[in-house]
Here is the input.
Amino acid sequence: MRKLNLITTLLLATLSHGSYAASLSIDYLSGGRGVGPDGVVTAELGDTLQFELNMDFSGPDEITLGGGFDINFGPAFAPVDFVFDLVFQSSWLQGFFEAGRYFNGSFGSFFGFTGPDRVGVLTLEVIAQNGLFVVAPSTTEGNAGPFLSAITFLPQIPPDMFGTQVRIVPVPAALWLLLSGLGVLCLRTRPRA
Here is the structure.
């Protein structure tokens, strides 16, 4: 019985801690060919994609003063823009594209941020021919530092990070498929003598 109580206590502690984990996520907003049934965004060369950077500091001890983050997108995309939402424009914030491979950003307020909120919108242009790529947040490589607790003023446990997969399909293959389909239609509808 004592062993069962210990297991139950550990399980409840794990579940309650997991439900309050702070997070940063990149979510697809618009552009490209949309999201497929497998949850992967599909795009072609030259498409423009928009992603939301969302945060959630809604746990009981997770009010944050802010901190730094990166959004990694790599050589498959060319950066277009990142626009912070109005909620964050009243605080200190900073953002710049670094080496064309990631966006380095930070935000903060001495009053603290809490709850789920959209941080901003990232716009990228597809410059790769094909492949499967991930657009994802990560802890910062810049000098903004980690997220700080508004309660203890100490570094917070890094938030969970969630990215979005993007499948870039080659245009010639899509065009070839369209042309072959049209050819089959033309052959089937041709009058027979």
